[in-house]
């Protein structure tokens, strides 16, 4: 690990700058839930790469631990700023739903193509935390978001290297890779955020019957904040790398990709 959660000075949080921002509360809490449940998905992914020991070992020994640290660091931030919220109760309900979605059915059959898919996911998370950093002027949150985003970029580099190594053997064509990237880009706005937000609202309101329309509306509200602060150039650059395009081709597809990413990631 490049940093420890113990390095974060939660006592220095300027609560007055962030506590009134309810949308930021939902963004941070939902992110803390998804990161805290990442060990379940990491285990599935490590088993998927059992015949690639270096990748499986890195997933278990580094990626999983760092993702869990992200969840813990975000949880501590939420509990410091909004101590009245029962984080544990909401997470227990969230995980009961989330773990059912963590199965091998969501993995690509090709080892190389799954690594390409992971590049898309890491692009999304790195961009998300960069957007959170830009969305707030609270110093501790900005520092924490920057640390997590840097981790996600570093994770991306590992997945990208494993993709290159595996694809050197599999020889998956560029069109197949493009298909995976496009599909995962369109799926990046998946059910996980809505599962998290629904269970946050359940704890807040003390009841289970939260209308789906209200969850969708809240998700859209949160997405608007991220969209306004999305580092689009960084996002495009990371998405294109697995295609290994010539610089001239990258320039040609840049503008339509900006429109596609803006629409797909946060539609």
From TrEMBL:
A GO MF term: oxidoreductase activity
SUPFAM superfamilies given in the database record: Ferritin-like
InterPro entries for this protein: Ferritin-like_SF, RNR-like
Signal peptide feature range: none
Protein name (database record): Fatty acid desaturase
Origin species: Cupriavidus plantarum
Lineage: Bacteria, Pseudomonadati, Pseudomonadota, Betaproteobacteria, Burkholderiales
């Amino acid at each position: 690990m490049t940093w420890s959660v113990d390095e974060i000075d939660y006592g220095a949080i300027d609560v007055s700058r962030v506590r009134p921002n309810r949308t930021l509360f939902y963004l941070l809490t939902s992110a803390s839930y998804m990161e805290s449940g990442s060990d379940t998905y990491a285990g599935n992914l490590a088993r998927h790469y059992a015949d690639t020991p270096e990748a499986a070992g890195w997933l278990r020994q580094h990626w999983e631990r760092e993702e869990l640290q992200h969840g813990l660091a975000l949880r501590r931030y939420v509990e410091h700023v909004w101590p009245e919220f029962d984080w544990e109760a909401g997470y227990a309900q969230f995980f009961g739903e989330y773990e059912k979605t963590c199965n091998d059915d969501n993995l690509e059959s090709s080892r190389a193509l799954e690594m390409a898919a992971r590049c898309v996911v890491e692009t999304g998370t790195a961009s998300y935390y960069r957007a959170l950093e830009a969305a707030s002027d609270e110093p501790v949150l900005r520092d924490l978001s920057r640390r997590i985003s840097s981790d996600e970029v570093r994770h991306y580099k590992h997945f990208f290297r494993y993709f290159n190594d595996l694809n050197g053997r599999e020889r998956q064509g560029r069109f197949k890779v493009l298909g995976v990237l496009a599909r995962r880009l369109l799926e990046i706005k998946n059910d996980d955020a809505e599962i998290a937000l629904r269970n946050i609202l359940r704890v807040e309101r003390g009841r289970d019957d939260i209308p789906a329309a209200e969850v969708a509306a809240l998700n859209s509200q949160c997405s608007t904040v991220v969209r306004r602060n999305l580092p689009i150039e960084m996002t495009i650059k990371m998405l294109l790398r697995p295609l290994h395009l010539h610089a001239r081709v990258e320039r040609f597809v840049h503008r339509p990709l900006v429109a596609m990413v803006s629409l797909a990631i946060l539609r």
